[in-house]
Design brief:
Radius of gyration: 62 Å
Bound molecules: FE3-S4 cluster
Number of helices: 14
Strand order of the largest sheet: 13-14-15-17-16
Largest sheet: 5 strands, mixed, barrel
Shape: rod-shaped
Structural class: alpha/beta
Number of strands: 32
């Protein structure tokens, strides 16, 4: 609740002067005020407690003792002064100087024969006092109708006003007087303090929800303040002291004004003001339970209470709701916020502006999320954590990856431990990486996948070499195939499967035997430093194991011509077992070279004429299978002779 206290509230200059004067005499005996010093019961009672009593008539003075009589600010008729003097009373005249001035005007002008008109309330003590300074009976006018009843006259007239009379009403009455009377002198005797208080009361009353007017029950100027206020503010309350105040009346009031009549002591105004301030504070505390204060840049929690496609309304327990625009929620300009959040969702937001000019609080969800992400990324950078992100864009210089809503750039040189010619293959993939640079202010958040791969390979290689030994069967995949062999990825290191170890037989072209990515199960033939030699020539498939039986001398076998030289042809009896058919063993006739008789791939049948397993050498002879024609001829000749 806002409280507006009128600056002009309370004692005016004249009243303050009279009250101060009375308190000066509280230590003395036989001190009286002529009438209550002010229209305020509290002050009057206090002075009474301090020995200063009230007389209403000069006859009330004790006849046997000298008395001191204080004249209050309203003043008294001249007759009272005279009477007091005649009784030997010591007069302390605390008549307000402004009132005293009126006395002087009235006394002088009446002595000069002027008609005296006093505009004011006939029953008010001040007016009674003024009347008493005129040498003849003045006219007292308190209303427009009384003014209109004036009889036209050409007399010289002096017009004065009660100091606390309403200024506008005074002017209206003066207008009427001037029309009816010919020779009029108007003295502007309305006290400025009163006019000022009334003006301020009107101004305050026009802009508050409730108005408190403090003053004594009999204070006419307080009553006037009440009337003025009531016209502007229906909820105007007239009280004498704090005890008259009903606080429940103000529980739902957000702005209250306080003014006080000229005779209201300051301490009463202070009491009322303090109590209203306390009530205001209590209201504030009460409100604090449900309403919070916020400041720009603060991160606060709220609840979604409304969602539109491009705007979210958030209850942040503040006097105004918060608004999140689409841009402050997401970077995705095509997003429909109704698909992303729903009423009732809790949300943590940052205050961008406490008032957007229309009383709303501007909030950002995106900035909170970004800061959280940045915190996470910074932590990951410091701790060299492995992050995962999705490749959302392939650019000429590398990959743009989204990781925890943040954009990370992986330069092409850091994508892999090998040169990656085709970065497009990473598009849409989840990739792992570490951060090598983190500077969000400069928008430099750089990822490094290569480092991760190198380190992992190193660790895998170490684990592999600790695990493997010569003779061990290992599994891997074909990584690369060359003319001399195939490199097999064993998970940490590559093993070389040389062309000679691919088969017991002869392999002409490894590329015709292996394809990249193909699984291979081989055995480790040798380890030399970081070099691993592999072989597929498993001993249990060694064709020479049973060769002694199959290829015994005298056995007839068949095979294909694998290759030929000038001295003979090599016949493959089975993979890994080649036998030599010497040129001299091809025929009974002389043959220059095997090519004259055979072609590569041609099947031949021959007799094993030599077998040396220690040298893995087998000799064949086709000639041995050709019948000896000379022997046949001799046999025929012998038969003919018999
Ligand atoms: Fe004097 Fe004006 Fe007060 S006339 S008593 S200062 S209201």
């Amino acid at each position: 609740m806002e409280i507006i206290l009128a600056e002009s509230a309370g004692f005016c200059f004249g009243v303050q002067r009279a009250v101060d004067t009375a308190y000066k005499y509280t230590g003395e005996e036989n001190v009286y005020t002529f009438g209550p010093i002010i229209h305020n019961e509290e002050v009057v009672e206090d002075l009474k407690q301090k020995g200063i009593r009230i007389i209403e008539d000069t006859d009330d003075l004790p006849p046997d003792r000298p008395a001191t009589v204080i004249i209050r600010s309203h003043g008294v008729p001249k007759s009272i002064i005279d009477d007091l003097n005649s009784k030997g009373a010591k007069i302390i005249d605390a008549t307000c100087p402004f009132v005293k001035k009126i006395h002087n005007i009235v006394q002088k002008d009446s002595q000069n024969g002027n008609e005296i008109i006093i505009i004011g309330d006939r029953n008010h003590p001040e007016v009674q006092g003024i009347i008493g300074w005129s040498t003849h009976e003045p006219i007292v006018i308190g209303s427009i109708s009384e003014a209109e009843n004036l009889v036209n006259s050409t007399k010289t007239v002096s017009v004065v006003a009660q100091t606390t009379f309403n200024n506008k009403k005074f002017k209206d009455i003066v207008d009427i007087i001037c029309k009816k009377l010919y020779n009029v002198t108007v003295y502007e005797t309305i006290c400025n303090a009163t006019a000022k208080r009334q003006k301020e009361t009107k101004e305050i009353a026009s802009k508050v929800d409730a108005m408190i007017v403090i003053g004594g029950r009999n204070s006419s100027n307080t009553q006037k303040l009440y009337d003025i206020s009531k016209k502007e503010c229906e909820n105007t309350y007239y009280i004498q002291t704090l005890v008259d105040l009903d606080f429940t009346t103000f529980e739902s009031v957000s702005r209250v004004g306080i003014t006080a009549g000229a005779s209201t002591p300051n301490y009463i105004i202070k009491e009322v003001h303090s109590s209203m301030a306390e009530l205001s504070f209590e209201q504030m505390l009460e409100n604090d339970e449900s309403k919070v204060s916020i400041r720009q840049g603060e991160v606060i929690d709220g609840t979604v209470i409304g969602v539109k496609p491009d705007e979210i309304v958030v209850d942040i327990k503040y006097k105004a709701d918060g608004i999140i625009s689409k841009h402050e929620y997401t970077n995705d300009s095509s997003a429909d916020l109704t698909e992303l959040v729903k009423v009732g969702d809790p949300i943590t937001v940052k205050v961008i502006k406490t008032n957007d000019g229309e009383g709303q609080v501007l909030l950002s969800y995106r900035r909170v999320a970004q800061e959280k992400i940045n915190d996470k990324l910074e932590e990951a950078f410091k701790n060299e954590e492995v992050l995962t992100g999705k490749v959302v864009q392939v650019v000429s210089g590398g990959l743009n990856v989204i990781c925890n809503e943040a954009r990370v750039f992986i330069p092409a040189s850091l994508v892999s431990d090998n040169y990656e010619k085709n970065l497009e293959k990473f598009m849409g993939q989840e990739v792992e990486f570490q951060l090598t640079e983190f500077n969000p202010k400069k928008r430099r958040v750089i990822g490094n996948r290569k480092k991760l791969i190198v380190e992992r390979k190193k660790a895998a290689a170490q684990a592999l070499f600790e695990r493997i030994e010569v003779g061990m069967i290992v599994e891997g995949t074909v990584k690369n195939v060359t003319d001399f062999g195939a490199f097999i990825d064993l998970g940490g290191a590559d093993g070389l499967l040389h062309i000679s170890e691919m088969s017991w037989g002869r392999v002409e072209n490894p590329k015709k035997v292996f394809k990249v990515g193909e699984p291979v199960k081989a055995y480790i033939k040798g380890i030399n430093g970081d070099k691993i030699a592999l072989s597929l020539k498993f001993e249990d498939t060694n064709p020479w194991i049973n060769a002694g039986e199959k290829y015994a001398i005298g056995n007839v076998v068949s095979g294909k011509i694998a290759r030929m030289t000038d001295f003979g042809a090599f016949v493959e009896l089975e993979p890994g077992v080649d036998a030599l058919l010497h040129v001299s063993q091809i025929s009974n006739q002389h043959i220059d070279k095997p090519q004259d008789v055979y072609k590569v791939g041609e099947t031949v049948e021959a007799k094993i004429v030599d077998f040396r397993p220690e040298d893995k050498k087998i000799s064949l002879s086709v000639k041995a299978l050709i019948p000896d024609t000379n022997e046949e001829a001799e046999t025929v000749e012998e038969a003919d002779a018999e």
